[in-house]
Automatic annotation (TrEMBL):
Name of this protein: STAS/SEC14 domain-containing protein
Gene3D superfamilies reported for this sequence: SpoIIaa-like domains
Pfam families per record: SpoIIAA-like
Length: 120
């Protein structure tokens, strides 16, 4: 599994991504987060591209799935944390300018700062 979901608080979700992120695994994680949001209400999300993250699955179509609109409406902030070489790709992948919530990218050494920014 290349994506692991943890609930550090009822309103703070941490997704840790390693290796090659596969489309099916991301869709499963989105559905898991969707269920959590339905039970706990709007949340903040930290996506951590851990050491060893390689990239997204090649040649996959990364279209939205049925739960994406709900996820976007019920995410209040998103922090992306990882090597700065992934910054532009990650912000583009998550459509930074088109989502209805704040999103920031942090280098790995600022993991705790990213978490504090989410909780603030």
């Amino acid at each position: 599994m290349t994506i692991h979901i943890a609930y550090e608080l009822p309103t703070l979700i941490v997704a840790t991504v390693t290796d090659v992120l596969m489309r099916e695994e991301l869709d499963d994680a989105k559905r898991q987060i969707h269920d959590h949001l339905q039970a706990h209400g709007p949340c903040r999300l930290l996506v951590f591209f851990a050491q060893g993250f390689i990239n997204l699955q090649a040649l996959a179509t990364w279209d939205d799935i049925d739960v994406d609109p709900y996820l976007q409406r019920n995410t209040t902030r998103m922090a992306l944390v990882g090597d700065m070489r992934w910054r532009d790709s990650a912000l583009l992948f998550f459509f930074n300018s088109m989502v209805p919530f704040q999103m920031e990218y942090f280098p790995p050494e600022q993991y705790e700062l990213a978490k504090a920014w989410l909780i603030d």
